[in-house]
Amino acid sequence: RSGHRMAIVQDWLVVFGGFAEEGKTGESRYYGDVHVFSCTERQWWAKTKKGKLLTLSPEKPGQRAGFSMWGHDSSAFIYGGTRKASKARGGGNFRLEV
Q1: Residues of the chain with pLDDT under 70
Q2: Looking at the chain, which terminus has fewer C-beta neighbours within 10 angstroms, N or C?
Q3: 3-state secondary structure 77-95
């Protein structure tokens, strides 16, 4: 996998997206999954400690790679990138709150 991004949000490392080339066809498979690592507990989480899924707004970002991602307060922000559907630049701002 490459093209994914990671941001520090408080004591969490948030990893999102990326792509990988598939076997013999060489086609790119794009990812839209989120992985969260707790720096204090040294453990990967699919949910926050409170048991809630990450809050995504204004909507869930689509599968993408090569985007900008940064952390601020309790959120990670995503902008741009390349998407599978159109292979064009991905638009919109997205916020993941942990």
Answers
A1: 46-60, 84-93, 98
A2: N
A3: EEECCEECCCCCECCCEEE
